[in-house]
Design goal:
α4 crosses α7, α13 packs across α14 and α13 runs antiparallel to α15. The protein is mainly α. It contains 15 helices and no strands. The chain folds into three domains: 108 residues, no CATH class; 110 residues, Receptor-associated Protein, CATH 1.20.81; 60 residues, no CATH class.
């Protein structure tokens, strides 16, 4: 592949991306009118002479605020991304996350340049390292959900005991906040504070379910809603929910043990072609470059990538047994 064509294509792609972002976040005349109305209403200060002084600190602060505003607008357009940060309880702000992803992608390109990899592999290296922060965020969310699911049966027993001793449901939630560790104490604490501020407890629990989409917790929310409308022994229902959750965990452990061989086989089959490619590239780079310089070679790479993804999906469907 001609390096000149690759450079031209990269320039056109970056220019198109910048133009799209500029059109997406362009401030129209309606926004200017709204700013003037906010100044007249006293919500904003009119720019004075002191604001026009250009200093190095002001430029740095303005650039950081601009990046933060762009990141906020992106996450406002895609609510699922913002919800992802809430579910993972990420200590990192969205703008820092975007900057870290860009820096990681640049590091991947630098590593590919240092080891003198083929030019077509530069986007692959950038994508691989640029997705590391996202993979960390997804891993953090998955680990938090798993820990919440493990703590949930104990929380149900605490709430049931509080109900039997004569406390209300909100007091039972407060017991969980005091006695249980994070993350379940933090989530129940947010729910408890919401209902203290006047939010109906059903709505507070539904809001908590959005933050922690756990199926067992959905059963708890449904039981509370039914008990509020029709009555019944909520403590007994919570004991049964906790017992069912514990039994399912036991069965899931048996399933994990029986499907361990299939999971290891899937990992080996997915990693073997990639490892073999880099091994042959180190031994004979010219032989491997035919996959990128020849038309048939590029078609083979595309078909191999599709088959890899298809094989991963099939293996996951085989070993993923729902309990």
């Amino acid at each position: 592949m001609n390096p000149t064509l690759v450079s031209i294509a990269a320039f056109v792609g970056v220019a198109g991306l910048v133009g799209a972002l500029a059109m997406l976040f362009h401030k129209d005349e309606e926004g200017v009118v709204e700013d003037r109305l906010d100044v007249l209403a006293g919500k904003k200060k009119a720019p004075g002479a002191e604001d026009k002084a250009v200093t190095r600190e002001a430029l740095v602060q303005e650039s950081l605020q601009g990046l933060s505003a762009i990141a906020d607008k992106i996450f406002q357009r895609f609510d699922n991304l913002r919800l992802l940060f809430v579910q993972a309880d990420s200590p990192m702000s969205p703008e820092k996350f975007c900057m870290l992803s860009i820096v990681s992608a640049a590091v991947g390109v630098g590593i590919a340049f240092v080891i003198r990899s083929p030019i077509p592999l530069y986007p692959v290296a950038a994508l691989s390292t640029g997705c590391i922060p996202l993979a960390w965020l997804l891993f953090r969310r998955k680990r938090r959900f798993k820990k919440f699911a493990q703590q949930f049966p104990d929380a149900m027993e605490l709430v049931a005991r509080a109900l039997r001793s004569g406390h209300s449901l909100s007091s039972g939630l407060h017991v969980v906040v005091q006695e249980m560790p994070e993350p379940i104490s933090k989530e129940f604490g947010m729910c408890y504070e919401e209902q203290n501020l006047g939010v109906p407890i059903e709505e507070a629990l539904k809001s908590m379910y959005k933050r922690v989409p756990n199926m067992d917790f959905k059963f708890f929310v449904t039981a509370v809603a039914i008990q509020r409308q029709a009555g019944g022994d909520l403590a007994e229902i919570l004991d049964k929910i906790g017992h069912i959750v514990r039994e399912r965990f036991r069965i899931m452990g048996q399933v994990q043990a029986l499907t361990g061989e299939g999971r290891i086989s899937g990992i080996v089959l997915m990693a073997l072609p990639i490892a073999l490619f880099f091994a042959v590239w180190q031994l004979n780079a010219e032989y491997v470059m035919l996959l990128f310089t020849d038309e048939i070679g590029r078609q083979m790479v595309a078909v191999a990538a599709v088959l890899q993804v298809l094989g991963a999906v099939c293996i996951k469907k085989i070993i993923a047994i729902k309990v």
